[in-house]
Amino acid sequence: MASLSTERVTAGGRTGALAPITLGFLAAIFWLAWQTIRLPILALLMMIEPILDFALSALALLIALTALFWKLADPKPGFPLWTTLAASLACVLLLALYHALTRLFSGNRMKI
User: Fold this and answer.
1) Which of 2, 50, 84, 103 lies at a CB distance of 3.0 to 4.6 Å from 67, suitable for a disulfide?
2) Is 10 left (phi over 0), alpha (psi -120 to 50) or beta?
3) Is 68 among the domain residues?
4) What DSSP assignment string belongs to 73-111?
């Protein structure tokens, strides 16, 4: 019994005439599967976008301003300035990751 990848189909003297049709069918199936995964995720991402944009932006700004305030108000060496500024940067990076995911699922690719 030969496997499908090594078996040749001859139709009217042409070899391999079924291969492009099979590949096109498989491409259509994968495209349809991607659309059924992509669209609900995109809808969810678009619904939470205003809330997430505001929350992460405000949190990043609030953490950064609080860190600078406490560093200037109480210059003791025990305050973790760089840790709190890193937390603020983490909020900004999470927001950038969110926008990258939205761009991926919407089909818009950034052109360089």
Assistant:
1) 84
2) beta
3) yes
4) H---TTS-HHHHHHHHHHHHHHHHHHHHHHHHHHT-PPP
d(CA 39, CA 53): 20
- Amino acid letter, residue 79: F
What's the number of domains the chain is made of?
1
The answer to whether residue 84 sits within a structural domain is: yes
pTM (two decimals): 0.70
Give 45-65 pLDDT, tens digit per residue. 999 999 999 999 999 999 999
Residue 32 within a domain? no
Q: Is residue 64 part of a domain?
A: yes
* 53, 95 contact by CB (below 8 A): yes
In terms of residue numbers, what domain contains 95? 39-107
CB atoms within 10 A of CB 43: 10
